[in-house]
Amino acid sequence: MLKANVRNNMILGKKIIYGAILCISLSGCGGGGDAAAPSGLTYTGLTTQANLTVENGEQISTSSYQNGGSGEGMGTTFTSLSEIEADVAMVKPRTSTLAKVLVAAVNKIEPSSSDTFFSGAVITESGDPIKGDCGGEASFTMSTDDVTGDFSGTMAFNSYCESGETINGSITISGNINVNAGTFNSMTMTMTSVSVTSGSETSLMDGTLSFNPGATPAVITMNMKLKAGSDDVFWMENFTLTIAEVTGGDDLTMEGRFYHPSYGYVDITTPTAFHYSGLNQYPFPGTMVTAGSNGSVVTLTSLSTTTYKIDIDTDGNGNIDHSDNGLWAEL
After folding, report:
1. Residue 280 has pLDDT above 50, yes or no
2. Cβ proximity of 208 and 221 under 8 Å
3. Does position 189 have pLDDT exceeding 60, yes or no?
4. I want to staple 169 with a disulfide (CB 3.0 to 4.6 A). Which of 48, 52, 55, 194 is the partner?
5. How many CB atoms lie within 10 A of CB 23?
6. What is the DSSP letter of 85?
7. Best CA proximity match to 93, nearest among 291, 250, 303
């Protein structure tokens, strides 16, 4: 575990705060780079519930799976199966990539316990840079009330890489610590234009993400806006990810509301968790249900780590109006 608490001269009377707040390239600190703070993402698309049809159901479902679209074809209907396959095959769900890397970074921090400090002190700590397992680093500074355990601070990610995914940007953190045990009870992260790179694609994300560090499985709730591969901004509202580490990989479930700028929102559930083996980007098994207006439903089912199936029920009567199979990786 990486932790180097600065303890000398920490207590002056009963209240003391010391340490420097992080200065990073995205926060307008001067001395190189863009001095202006980044502007956040704004969702300007439709906010009514989407009506899922044979023409748009495949695109909305695959975009929902990815937590956002990218490149050409977004805002238009698919004209061939190959377009659907190209969109689905690009990456794992983007917010799950972000969440998994952030949870991994936070779990390398050991907050201070209260046994060596006067009651009522405010403890400020920072540590040696947290190294990513595939490169880069993250730094943190946090101040904690030694009585209540409430804390606040910042984390800065500089090409921080876990499992092949890379994060850059600044995140504000807050939450609560068990001051007796020196462990996190809860954490909320707030971010503006944090970048997440997976393969050759970089996404920008704004919003909040809350979880209990160290809990298994990891349950992450978020309200997040996302931009990837185009000018379109997508929105995940009251979205919950559950990531369970299992033998040979991870199980992922998603639940919440996804807004597509061209069509409006759909509600997502995953009756069967998506299972990712190792670094495989294509899951098996797994089922995601996307629900629109007037009872319309699209079901995306993974048939194997190479094939998937999409079924569209346009009116909720249980009859499948359109069905397609495809290869995850066919571009």
Report:
1. yes
2. no
3. yes
4. 194
5. 13
6. H
7. 250
